[in-house]
Amino acid sequence: MKKSIIYHSTLIAFMVALAACKTQKPSTTGSKIEQSQGVYQYRDEDPTVQPFFSDRKGVIGRNGMVASAHPEASQVGLTILKAGGNAVDAAVAVQFALAVVYPGAGNIGGGGFMVYRDRAGSAYTLDYREKAPGQATQNMYLDSLGNVRQGLSISGHLASGVPGSVDGMVEAHKRFGKLAWAEVLQPAVDLAAKGFALTERDALGLNRIKTDLTTINPGKAYFLKSTSPTDTTTWKKGDLLVQADLAKTLQRIQAQGRAGFYEGETARLLAEEMKRGKGLISAEDLKNYHSVWRQPLQANYKSYNVITMPPTSSGGVALIQLMRFTEPYPLRKWGWNRDSTVQVMIEAERRVYADRAKFLGDPDFVKVPVDTLINPNYLRTRWTDFSFAKATDSRAVKGGTIPGYESLETTHFSVVDKEGNAVSITTTLNGGYGSRVVVGGAGFFLNNEMDDFSIKPGVPNMFGLIGNQANAIAPNKRMLSSMTPTILEKDGKLFMVVGTPGGSTIITSVYQTILNVIEHGMSMQEAVNALKFHHQWLPDKTIFENGAFSEPTIQALQSRGYILEKLTNTLGRMDCVLVRPDGSYEGASDPRADNTARGY
Ligand code: DON
């Protein structure tokens, strides 16, 4: 897949940051925003280890916190909290704001998952994942010889599932919101109608997809700086992006709720768009789409309780498997990213992703053996071939082929309000700007989530993930996800809200970020800043951010047969909140992009 321009700028930012963060100094106080003070006192005895991407400090708030991928969206969330909204009001406002200011992943044309824990400790999860259209068929991306028709599940009209985000937000707000729906939608309407100033990253992202915008959307003027074929001007930092059609779409949703999207004008425009591009989503599909409240997946880890997303995401099951595989080992004593620590984590990841490919799919269509998969007795049987002497061969676990990696264009946000209600949402169009189809007259991108199905057994998707019958395409079925919005309790109280984009790497980034805090004593921001690695069973290699492993760790792992690949790009864009021992919140946003935490 295309490597984004963003990665190049990220790399430069990374190198500058790395040079600047030789030592972790206590944060400076006295700035306007209160910053974290290293409550958990991470220490590494080895001075050659530089575990952090940057020395960004967490933001401290006592009354509320919002961490998201974009400063404008985080500000919207904060404004809603300060206006008396609860965490769900703020989260709904952030989802819609991101659909305006972060069109690469924020969306109304995609889907997502919400994990919610209320202040009294009750937990809920909402599955607003897209569905395959009613006319979808198992082999829709194969030719008559059974070969994959390249690219059809990735770009253009056939790549889109039926969007779930608007229904999800309506459901979440109806059940838990406090402020009026119209009030919660207003900031997004304003951002679309009046425009907002692009960040440098926003500008680069839109410039990067200019060709697709014109070829996939002939005759439309959306997201282009100039529509004249001879004018080569591109977007730059500070330019105002006004989205008049999107503003009208948002106003319809504001006025009519669900019907403002799934019926009436918006639905008509979307169905028309599908007709124009020979896509499958029908007016009927839209009318029939409903998000689903699912039983949260919960599991104990030491004195913590992990509350996470059940299938249709694989993320929760995988996260719990990972945590349970490595729970018996003294990770803290071994040290952060030392060879033994990394080795048991990689071996856990190898086995978990093999299970994912075999067993996971939409629970409304296939029986997913969740209880067995996270059962310690089952996990013990999966560990019998582990040896510290040598890497397990993935082919002995199962077979597959080699993929590429797409840019990080899902998005996660975390919100905690004054009363301690907490929301963890990951939402996506799948690839950056989804299918790149903009709905004519309605002004929003459609997802390319169909690629998350296993379009043919054993054929990798854009994240290199393979699957089988459990995740085969069927009409109205949800495609399997790796998104892992998660909330942790410690001793029965709210402790952490965590999540990230990153396709297949979401699960392992969430896993490492949690362990960084609870095993390695990092603050929330340090855990986010910390460099990351990833293994997904197939391809049988470990990718790592430059600096994540020290030289001795690399040598030790290689001598045991591990294939290591240093990335030139980055892993994860976490947005998290930690409740500190004094009850204040530490908001941590990823320094790898524009992510921003705002608290008060
Ligand atoms: O649901 C999933 O697992 C994927 N559609 C997520 C895609 C993603 O994270 C893309 N960017 N990082």
From TrEMBL:
It comes from Spirosoma terrae. Belongs to the gamma-glutamyltransferase family. Its EC number is 2.3.2.2, 3.4.19.13. Residues 1-19 form the signal peptide. This is Glutathione hydrolase proenzyme. NCBIfam families: g_glut_trans. Cleaved by autocatalysis into a large and a small subunit. Gene3D superfamilies: 1.10.246.130, 3.60.20.40. The keyword Signal applies. PROSITE patterns: G_GLU_TRANSPEPTIDASE (PS00462), PROKAR_LIPOPROTEIN (PS51257).
